[in-house]
Amino acid sequence: MLSREDNDLVTQTNQGTPMGSLIRRYWVPALLSEEIPAADCPPVRVKLMGEDLVAFRDTQGHIGLLGEHTATFARSFVTRRIPLTKPMASSTPISGRAN
User: Fold this and answer.
1) How far, in Å, CA of 53 to CA of 35, rounded?
2) How many Å apart are CA 90 and CA 4, to the nearest integer?
3) H or E element: which one contains 53?
4) pLDDT, tens digit, for every residue of 20-72?
5) Hey, which residues does 63 pair with through a beta bridge?
6) Strands (E), the chain
7) What is the DSSP letter of 44?
8) Segments in the chain forming alpha helices (H)
9) What is the pTM of this model?
10) Is residue 53 a contact partner of residue 79, using CB atoms and an 8 Å limit?
11) Contacting residues for 13 by C-beta, under 8 A, at least 6 apart
12) How confident is residue 78, by pLDDT bands cut at 50, 70 and 90?
């Protein structure tokens, strides 16, 4: 049986934890593409590894996943539309950092 400390080490996946840092290096499924069925459909809230995210399709039908709250915008991305004039750069689904 694992000690409480060892159990926390391998099960906690929030940002800044050892397992959270490891898992964020890999692609992690967030939701089915059918859950955001069409271009410009309403965005969907996703909670993944302790992070509040927003999944959406842009006007061209490309799927995106962003942090729900940012320092730049005071409101949630779920409650607003941000028009994109060019495709977003390829990014990891969790951190949003470019590959």
Assistant:
1) 14
2) 38
3) strand 51-57
4) 899 888 888 889 989 999 998 999 999 988 888 899 998 899 998 888 876 66
5) 57
6) 44-48, 51-57, 63-67
7) E
8) 4-11, 18-23
9) 0.62
10) no
11) 19, 20, 23, 49, 50
12) low
